[in-house]
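Predict the 3D structure for this chain.
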Amino acid sequence: MKKNIFSIILVLAFSFVSFAQEKNLKNIKQLTFGGDNAEAYFSPNGKNLTLQITNPQFGIQCDQIYMLDLQKENHSPEDLQLISTGLGRTTCSFFMPDGKHILYASTHEGGHACPAPPKSTDGKYLWAIYPEFDIYVADLNGKVVKQLTNTPGYDAEAVVSPDGEKIVFTSTRSGDLELWIMDIDGSNLKQLTDGLGYDGGAFFSHDSKKLVFRSSRPKTEEAIAEYKDLLSKNLVAPTEMEIYTINIDGTNLKQVTHLGKANWAPYFHPSDKKIIFSSNHHSTRGYDFQLFMIDEDGKNLRQITWESEFNAFPMFSPDGKKLVFSSNRQQSKPRETNVFIADWVDTDEKEVINDANLKGHIKYLASDELEGRLTGSIGEEKAANYIATEFRKLGLKPYDKSYTQKFNYKVRLNPHDSTSVKDNHGMNVIGVLDNKAKKTIVIGAHYDHLGRNEHHHSTKPNSEGEIHNGADDNASGVSGVLELARILVQNKTKEKVNYVFALFSGEEDGLIGSKFMAETLKDKFPNVVAMINMDMIGRLNDNKALVVGGVGTSPVFEKIIEKNKPAGFNVTLENTGIGPSDHTSFYLKDIPVLFFFTGTHMDYHKPSDDEDKINYYGVRAIVDYIFRVTNEISNTTEIPFTKTKVEAGKKVPTYKVTLGIMPDYTDYGDGLHIDGVTDDRPAAKAGILSGDVLTQIGDCKIKEVYSYMDCLSKLKVGDEREVTVIRKGEELKLKVIF
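Done. Predicted structure below.
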């Protein structure tokens, strides 16, 4: 029911303005003002910070170490106390166990001037690995009392174990950037890592038994050659790093993240079971680092910061009650980074999206055992029983006398034959979380699919008898509903609304089940303030394109959707409340609706829509997004309903020709992005490929899906035009016969 979605709706460009939704951080307070302030770490008693500062305005030409007293109520630049020599460049300070001395690396023995920063010849971001860096111990007056390393090459990034017995640091003394550990006095030196790549930024667990660190670990011949070449020049390109853990004796090396891009600045949560870190893995455009948290086993990733484009260097206070981090939020000048401190509020663990739950639901619902979940089939009944069992486990109340709501309807088996009509039946599965509230929110998805193509909705020719498992369409949405039901039942909060969790059947035959439920909904729940529909949320693409429909059905929705957007997502807004999915049935009953959809693809309505193609990172992020949106709606006093125009002021053109592509419906502004190309159709015959960006047909320019349809409307069968596409940054012109 989704393939013609954009022939009846208007795509509105999303405003990419970040808003804070930082529930783990309370009472955020800015500690520094101006310049580049970073790597702030607590003293053992939690009363002071060390940090490194560059601020030419105050004569600090390159990083020097300063101390800040946290016991003051308000802070100013005058509160910062220099505790390094003021010579050369320093990095990575850390308090010694007595709280009266600090550990840091410095180049001052190699020269009093600031060493030259690295220069990139090909535009890559580079870090300098200054060979003059050695590790020193100094008192809080800046007097160096001991030099711990004096081996040629880079020795830096040193930190002390919480038990005060060990120091870990990064060194090139073996010929590569490896982790080394030594006793607090510098004795008993031991190499911990030996894999090729930059191993650095290590911190101890709170029990002092493990380390968490970042590592580049190049794999391909090209990446290895580049790494070695840069290292020979005392440089690294820190653009591909993952988070690892290792025991302090060098055993049990484990890779925690597999996210891609730069994952760095890790620190153990006070429980030692989770890790907070900075990452740009989510970013599809430009520079964007946010703090994330992940379980030590690499599961249950969640976003911590939303504000600004740089958040890094997180560290928990010794008592675990505060988090200090660096950020460019509230900057007064471009490229300014300041240090912030906040009260840390642990997430209600029941509110963490559970990866295993999502996968388990989709895997079962999209299995061959259910034979495609055709409405009225045994497979549909099995799926309904599965959903009802989940509701029963959670203790949800039945919507009526049971969880199932049965309905009858007529289905036409051949759209071109008015006599091919037969009686059919189906059942919705509905559970209720009754919070004794005056307001109600419906969270829904359809669980039916095409079965073995008995009702002839498949997009694959001659596919009768083949199982259409519908993993994305719409086992993905069902998994989201079930996981949100679990969270809202099990969390510690009693929300200010009742929740109705509705799984519909008959959607593929014309929204039959949702229409049936919508007829009686207001009799049972007179004040339904919103219906949230998840239909096909399982195939988030590399551009992280997500469509959110129904935004115009209430004047409060756009701000809520904008505020809670996951980092890196390219969200396209639809105003209209009408579309080819179940939210339409509720919109027509004057209920505000929201519709979440990751777009169509080459497996849409085909037997190939299987579980192994699901993007679970995307499902998790979208379900978490919907949870935040739902929370905000529940706490909003008024959710007025607004009627929307289907065409939203723009007439959709009609056209008689096809190109044979699967478009990405997100409005990127640079053309129509092509998600797929159908075999033996005009685009494929002309050499157009998936991933191309269509910019022009003849002299008709294309910016998004509507201008594409407008260009098609001007053509007739047999017309030949030169079509312009962008492929990997290069413009190509291809001849197409329509």
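The mean pLDDT is 91.
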